[in-house]
From TrEMBL:
InterPro entries: HATPase_C_sf, HATPase_dom, His_kinase_dom, HisK_dim/P_dom, HisK_dim/P_sf, PAS-like_dom_sf, PAS_4, Sig_transdc_His_kin-like_C. Keywords: ATP-binding, Kinase, Nucleotide-binding, Phosphoprotein, Transferase, Two-component regulatory system. One of its GO terms (molecular function) is phosphorelay sensor kinase activity. SMART domains: HATPase_c (SM00387), HisKA (SM00388). It holds the Pfam family HisKA. It comes from Tahibacter soli. Gene3D superfamilies: 1.10.287.130, Histidine kinase-like ATPase, C-terminal domain, PAS domain. It catalyses: ATP + protein L-histidine = ADP + protein N-phospho-L-histidine. Its EC number is 2.7.13.3. Residues 123-332 form the Histidine kinase domain. This is histidine kinase.
Length: 335
């Protein structure tokens, strides 16, 4: 359920294409785009998406054979139900075989008003709210009955996280994938992340290296917390016992194809095992993980949250020194 929920949080339409060019694990966004259920799409031939267009399966074969990303721009899909839709498509090779299909609907083809979550994802969001309410209530009772300040802080932390997850569930039920932007103090977000990491079973030694002169920015504090918490937990899972949270201002920062006058840079540094070199180019793609028990979705969600804020997330790594960097624009872009 956890892996499925993360996969379905991606607003990008994605699926795994196996060696037989069949659709596997289509996410909710792909189902919505095509107007078909996951059960209907699972195991179907890739050719179902554009029966008269040989370029689609040919691109998937090239991506697998040449082990590189193959893109199709302004490609017209012809789903079995509904009208043709014009999209950008990317096929990326996966380490364990097959390719990842990513479909980005072009704005004229997919108006925002028509985007709705699938019933399965709505059901998940609805069902998760009940145990969250119970969890929050139990934490409130616990906070009233303990005297130690440290235990009260932990109870408050549980309540805050239950509220954050409840807000996420409401967002899913309302069908809104956009972040709720407000003025955010990034250091308050980082302190919240630090408290959550300190509460982990294998809590690392945390170092804060903040630039106190940084101005606030517009962002979704809950989504940014999710992004940075994912990075911190990844560090712990990579065996790190020391994590540094660092904030800086960066002038003339390049974010994708843009250059922004002023950007916020947040670095999460750790001394873990590092990222395997074979995953360096595909690290932020869904279903790519350096751990046997990993979902391969956490970093994909991080990338999507960064993009929601007009930013980007990147990584440089070697054994004993890994740095994940989040860049978020303060000002207008140029160049």
């Amino acid at each position: 359920m956890e892996i499925t929920a993360l996969w379905n949080q991606l607003s990008t339409a994605v699926a795994h294409i196996d060696d037989g060019l069949r659709l596997r694990a289509p996410n909710a966004a792909l189902c919505e785009l095509l107007g078909l259920s996951a059960r209907r799409l699972e195991g179907e031939s890739l050719a179902l998406l554009a029966p008269e267009r040989a370029e689609l399966p040919d691109a998937a074969r090239r991506a697998a054979a040449e082990q590189r990303i193959v893109q199709l721009r302004a490609f017209s899909l012809a789903p079995p139900l509904g009208d043709p839709v014009t999209v950008d498509i990317a096929f990326s090779p996966l380490p364990d075989g097959g390719v990842l299909l990513e479909i980005h609907a072009l704005p004229p083809a997919l108006p925002e008003s028509t985007v709705r979550l699938s019933e399965s994802l709505r059901g998940f969001a609805h069902e998760v709210k009940n145990p969250l309410a119970g969890l929050r209530g139990a934490a409130q009772l616990l906070g009233r009955r303990v005297a130690e300040p440290e235990l009260k802080e932990l109870a408050d932390l549980i309540i805050a996280e239950a509220d954050r997850l409840g807000a996420l569930a409401n967002r899913l039920l309302q069908g809104s994938g956009k972040p709720h932007l407000a003025v955010v103090n990034i250091h308050e977000v980082l302190e919240r992340v630090a408290a959550l990491l300190a509460a982990q079973e294998r809590a690392p030694m945390l170092t804060r290296d903040f630039d106190p002169s940084l101005p606030p920015l517009r962002g979704d504090a809950d989504r940014l917390t999710q992004l940075l918490l994912n990075l911190g937990r990844n560090a712990i899972e990579a065996g790190a016992d020391r994590v540094v949270l660092r904030s800086r201002a960066e002038h003339g920062a390049r974010i994708g194809e843009r250059v922004v006058r002023l950007a916020l840079r947040v670095d999460v540094l750790d001394n873990g095992r590092g990222v395997p070199p074979a995953l360096a180019d595909t690290l932020f793609l869904p279903m790519v993980s350096g751990r046997a028990d990993g979902s391969g979705l956490g970093l994909a969600v991080c990338r999507e949250i960064a993009r929601e804020h007009g930013g980007a997330v990147s990584c440089r790594s070697r054994p004993g020194e890994t740095v994940f960097t989040l860049l978020l624009p303060f000002g207008d872009s140029h160049g």
